[in-house]
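okkk here we go again. third time trying to get the NAP bound version out, last two times i messed up the smiles copy paste (missing a bracket lol). double checked this time i swear
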Amino acid sequence: MDVTKILGRRHRIMKAVVTKKYGPPEVARIQEIENPVPKENEILIKVLSTPVTSGDARIRGLNVPFGFKFITKLMFGFKGPKNPVLGVVFSGIVEQVGEKVEAFGKGDAVFGSKENMGCHAEYLVIKESGAIVHKPEKLSHQEAASIPFGALTSLKYLRDFGKIKKGQKILINGASGALGVYGVQLAKYFGAEVTGVCGPSNVELVKSLEADHVIDYKSTDFTENEESYDIIYDTVGKLDFSKCKDSLNKNGLFLLAAAGLKEYRQVLSTSFSGSKKVVAGVALFKKEDLKVVVELIEQDHIRPVIGKTFEFSDIVEAYKYVDGGHKVASAVLTV
Ligand SMILES: NC(=O)c1ccc[n+]([C@@H]2O[C@H](COP(=O)([O-])OP(=O)(O)OC[C@H]3O[C@@H](n4cnc5c(N)ncnc54)[C@H](OP(=O)(O)O)[C@@H]3O)[C@@H](O)[C@H]2O)c1
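finally!!
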């Protein structure tokens, strides 16, 4: 049965990863659904590459920090994701633009982030005002897709939450993950002295990102040496503030990208007392910040890091890799 003929030309059919209920990687299925149609201020994009991020895996598996299950269901849907097509980052080609769109035209190579998801599909629509920019020519679509999730989050954490300054000492835990690889490069750009913490197999990668020092967490516990830092940025939610406190300088910040109820209580309590603060929050992905990231790519301050690539049809394998907790930088799907 040719569904396109029945539905008419405006309602073409595309392939997408559809997740109708929360659960293990196998709940993500490739299905045929209707193409999105752009409104007058929207852009239709043919997706060429899209990463499977730790954020997608969290929502798919409802694997959220302690105390956040109810609020996540409230936001994303009680029985399963309200928007069953997950994926927050894309790189691709503009297929069609709404009549009020000015900065983009058919055939433009673009990349960016769609916070209300829908990137794990052959096509997506995004508002012109959303986090979409032209792709730097020197990046492939796979490379471009590997950048926004980690770079935009770490930019928010380091520049806005951490107010990082030249000459400060920062330790980045999880330096080989998506947030970590861009966190290291951004912290170097901001002029900090960077210590990256990762497992033994990723030490060379983190050194190659020009971290000043690299600690293998399997053989060395940094909290037991004499070093102290102005900022400890835990990208992977593996550190405990009470254990790290002595490794923070006076007025030091403990930045947490993955925080549960206990950590948010620490955010509150340290905001009232003590010189060392715990900081956590949500990084919203904005066009202005994506433009900053593009400038840093153009100036060679940020380079893409892809851990592994997968075909679109291997979505379950990709999710298993991300769920494993040892993803290197980004896992990118070729659509
Ligand atoms: N707050 C926000 O707005 C926001 C935004 C985006 C993401 N997040 C959260 O940030 C977290 C990190 O995201 P991500 O995509 O960067 O994660 P990721 O890429 O999945 O992180 C995997 C990395 O973590 C490292 N790792 C695992 N155990 C470790 C340990 N005990 N110590 C140090 N490193 C360890 C692994 O290195 P080895 O293989 O060497 O162990 C691996 O390279 C997620 O929980 C995500 O939900 C928050």
